[in-house]
Amino acid sequence: MNHPLDIQADAAVLSLRGVSKKIGSKKIVDQLSFDVHEGEVVGLLGPNGAGKTTTIRMIAGLISMTEGDVFVRGSSIRHEWKNAIRHIGAIIENPEFYPYMTGYDNLKQYQRMNSWISNERINEVVRLVGLEHAMKKKVKAYSLGMRQRLGIAQALLHEPSVLILDEPTNGLDPAGIREMRDYLKTIAREEGISILVSSHLLLEMEQMCSRVVVIQDGKLVTVRSIGENSAAAHEEKNFVRVMFRVGRLEEAKNVLGNMDNAEVLQVAEEQSELLVALRYKDIPDMVTALGAAGVPIYQITELKQSLEDEFLKWTGGNRIA
């Protein structure tokens, strides 16, 4: 019997289908299914102990699955491991290098084990992660952020379709975190690589990712579009919260109060503002109704919930760790 998500699997670069991991009598991951498409950055979120690292290790082929399968470019991790794994680049823990060698020599060492990797490819990935200035330095002189970026460069050398990163910003200062975010977005855009990244920094995920996959107790809670890429997310919402700053506040209250598809949540008399819950697609109708009643509209602002607010709602108040 086909899995209900099999229709989308062909279009996805990375697909999880009913993936489970059981250790003894405890199910660490339970029937997890989601897709990652070409050129997108997807965040894997969940409270402490949700099964994020276990999931990432199964995708990378480091530990076995009890049930289900992972497909990379259509190849099964379970049954076509060699073909599937060649499409994956991953940093699961801190990347390790020869500290007494330069960054360039470390990449050359990896090239020696994979003879098809060209010198041009080394130069390409070095440019992608912004380490052109540091290739002649010994790795022991690198900052943590530089080592992380060198690790990503190494993971990209064999031109994978999927890049998997577990907490790539751990230990980085704010400038390093911002650099990492910018480089990952550049890599996804320029290389067309699908990136799956786990992190406990929700604000960072909100700025980096186009979608998030939220898991709790090893089970899928939701898959949502976020950030600048969430135009489609409005279609997922039943209602949005919109603040109207108007003239003639009482008339505005009457107009909105008579509309079936809107609810006035809050009125700020001094600021002449109304907070209204309505469907996103109904905002133009509301503006038209206010204008027809002669109510001046000075400002319309959608009040968006942060990813942290949404995360706490999705997980019943469990904080990420």
Number of helices: 12
Low-confidence stretches: 1-10, 231-236
Strand order of the largest sheet: 6-7-8-3-9-10
State the total count of DSSP E strands.
Answer: 14
Question: Which overall shape is indicated by the principal axes computed on the Cα atoms?
Answer: elongated
What structural class do you assign from the helix and strand content?
alpha/beta
Q: Average pLDDT value?
A: 85
Taking all Cα atoms into account, the compactness measure Rg is: 24 Å
Head-to-tail CA distance between termini: 37 Å
Give the helix level as a range of percent.
Answer: 25-40%
**Percent of residues in beta strands?**
25-35%
Q: Sheet bearing the most strands, described? A: 6 strands, mixed
Q: SSE string, helix = H, strand = E?
A: HEEEHEEHEHHHEHEHEEHEHEEHEH
